[in-house]
């Protein structure tokens, strides 16, 4: 029973719950950004580079051939550098998108914090107080 109580206290701590919410939202946001990259940003980039699909770029290290001993086809061995380029471009676009989103959220937060609270007018200086007293005395004499 004690172990169950400890687990319950751990699982319901604010930090753990906040982290779980962040992971879930992050996963959903990741899907949105991945769709943005693959469906909206990459097609125009592919068009600009002549319709080239980076993920198809590769170097053949060994061609496909028939294994004479087993009589089975051996697949080609390739170095898929195009897939690496595509993944790197995707990462850079996703990282930049997250940077812009965080910058925008920080800007909104800063504007909210910068709104000054209404302040009382500043207290009059000693000279102003003295001049006010002199004015009042002169009024009383007339």
Query: CA-to-CA gap between the ends?
Result: 91 Å
Specify the number of helices. Answer: 4
Percent range for β-strand residues: 5-15%
Q: Tell me the Rg in angstroms.
A: 34 Å
Q: Classify the fold: give the CATH topology.
A: Non-ribosomal Peptide Synthetase Peptidyl Carrier Protein, Chain A
Spatial sequence of strands, sheet with the most strands: 1-4
CATH superfamily annotation: Large-conductance mechanosensitive channel, MscL, domain 1
- Please provide the ordered H/E string of secondary-structure elements: HHEEEEHH
Overall 3D geometry? elongated
List the domain count as a whole number: 1
Total beta-strand segments: 4
Please identify the top-level CATH class: Mainly Alpha
Let me know the average pLDDT. 82
- Return residue spans where pLDDT drops below 50 for at least 5 consecutive residues: none
Helix content bin: 55-70%
- Major sheet: 2 strands, antiparallel
Sheet/helix structural class: mainly alpha
- The CATH architecture category equals Orthogonal Bundle
Subunit structure: Homopentamer.
InterPro entries: Mechanosensitive_channel_CS, MS_channel, MSC/AndL, MscL_channel
Family: Belongs to the MscL family.
Keywords: Cell inner membrane, Cell membrane, Ion channel, Ion transport, Membrane, Transmembrane, Transmembrane helix, Transport
